[in-house]
Amino acid sequence: xxxxxxxxxxxxxAAGVSLRTASRVLNDDxxxxxxxxxxxxxxxxxxxxxxxxxxxxxxxxxxTTIGFVVESISDPFFAExxxxxxxxxxxxxxxxxxxxxxxxxxxxxDVIGRMVQRRVAGLLLSPTSDDHSWLDPQRVxxxxxxxxxxxxxxxxxxxxxxxxxxxxxxxxxxHGHQRIAYIGDxxxxxxxxxxxxxxxxxxxxxxxxAAEHLVNCDCATSQAAARAxxxxxxxxxxxxxxxxxxxxxxxxxxGVVPTLHSAGRTDIALVAFGDxxxxxxxxxxxxxxxxxxxxxxxxxxxxxxxxLEQPGxxxxxxxxPARIIERGSGELRP
Length: 334
Fold this sequence. Notes:
The protein is α/β, with parallel strands linked by helices. The chain contains eleven helices and twelve strands. Helix 1 (8-15) crosses helix 2 (19-26) and helix 7 (161-174) runs parallel beside helix 8 (190-205).
């Protein structure tokens, strides 16, 4: 016969306190004396007491869980962000519930609604849709991650995507390149739009003619990026291939790099947005714009925790520094 789970009443009896006092310790009520708190916690450990999270949320009005809504859990950048968030939150005893939108605005609204209904303590959100005016940050604390949310005023943790892309293109120009291709995602995504502007602005600033056939803004997957690069370096005599490429997302880079290597075109200079496994082991090793997912996640988690402690904090945009890591591919000359 299975043993009945330990009840809070069992903990109270073992610690020699009332059920109300044990409940206050469970809910971190500051009115409990430190000595009593310690005694109750030791009883919880001895009895292997496991609190019912749902029951606690109903009593307290919120859950301890943090919701995290991202575009894709499999994206290398978001995988790093999630890892950092989970690490940071686990130190505070807060579980993290992660779900993806798959770039579906209807799904995004549905999963956020379910999290709010569940009464999550706070929400980290990397937005998908172009209208978030229906979201109420007064109902659940929100921190935006990596991109802004149209119609929503909330804390934002990101990098300066425009500056990072500008600097990457300027780096290639400084190494003698004039025909620089852009492989990126749709400008409907704020981060992608900022990177594309940075690319164009750098060309204009350095008086380098822009060639529209070198710009590919529909590479949401590595496969699409691979096809775009194959077309750029193909045998069409009427098209001059680029001497350099800015790969504006990690997913794009995972298509760009193997395509260049398979075609024997590692003479084409490359700067990749975001690091990825084995990038430093290739020949030439891949020069990257360090888009630090772990740091973005750490700062976003810290900001949400601060907002949970102080709901009246002014809304703030926090930009994590990005830098170019020179490894060889971005320093090739034409």
